[in-house]
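Internal tracking record. Fields below are filled automatically when a chain is submitted to the structure queue. Please do not edit lines marked as system-generated. If the sequence contains nonstandard residues, flag them in the REMARKS field before resubmitting.
Queue: standard
Priority: normal
Entity type: single polypeptide chain
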Amino acid sequence: MTNNNDQRILDMKKQIEVKKEKLGKNLRFTPITNCSIELDDKRYNLNAMTKDTLIHLAVKLHSYMESAKTLGLGEQYVISGYSPVDWVADIKHKIDILSKKDEEKSLKVMEEKLSKLLSEGKQVELEIDAIANFLK
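SYSTEM-GENERATED OUTPUT FOLLOWS
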């Protein structure tokens, strides 16, 4: 017999599973650029940056891009061998990957917390069900 809290916990665990499925498989980062950009006398490696610093860099690049367009130099403006559009595309893709990893990590933590909150009787029941399904 499941108590009310156990049922709520199981329902929330199902919601977590649905969210995990929606996230899908891990995104593969296939960059357009070489991921090493020099900007304002500082070198950045996109693969070694945090999400916050990537966002900051994307905003900075975007403002440079817009300035170049305003000056009529948009087509000629190149940074470390690539167009700012390519750099921004790579940065946005990297941010998406890091955001997805953060979401996966949060879901895993919530799932573990919920599992610990299940009553001992329900935990035993679920383990027995898992073994029975394995033996089928």
